[in-house]
Backbone:
């Protein structure tokens, strides 16, 4: 939930852009002003996102260095478990994509709206 909130805060919503064009479709001058304001806001969001990621990376690196200095004999075990976890997460992502794609192909083949809705569970 926290990650979803952060991504919603930092990244652009298409609905916002579409809303600007729908509200002001007759007045090009207002659209231009709103788009310029939107681009400035977007630039500020991306800049703050890059700064936040950089700070998190520095803190993570500091934590890793401290951890490895305190527990020097556990470095290899920690590295092995990290690699296993990353591989496991990637396998789960691939299986999720295969599940969704398979159900969507079946829903189009059998013209079943229920199968299509079932494929959207993980979205």
Residues:
């Amino acid at each position: 939930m926290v990650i979803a909130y952060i991504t919603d805060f930092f990244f652009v919503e298409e609905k916002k852009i579409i809303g600007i064009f729908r509200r002001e479709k007759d007045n090009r001058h207002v659209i231009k002003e709103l788009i310029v304001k939107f681009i400035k806001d977007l630039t500020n969001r991306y800049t703050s996102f890059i700064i936040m990621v950089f700070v998190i990376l520095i803190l993570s690196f500091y934590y890793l260095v401290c951890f490895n200095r305190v527990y020097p004999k556990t470095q290899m075990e920690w590295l092995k478990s990290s690699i296993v976890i990353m591989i496991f997460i990637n396998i789960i992502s691939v299986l999720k994509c295969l599940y969704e794609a398979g159900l969507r192909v079946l829903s189009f083949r059998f013209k079943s709206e229920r199968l299509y809705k079932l494929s959207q569970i993980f979205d």
Q: What stands out?
A: The mean pLDDT is 86. The helical segments are 2-10, 14-23, 28-70, 75-110, 113-119. The CA atoms of residues 19 and 32 lie 14 Å apart.
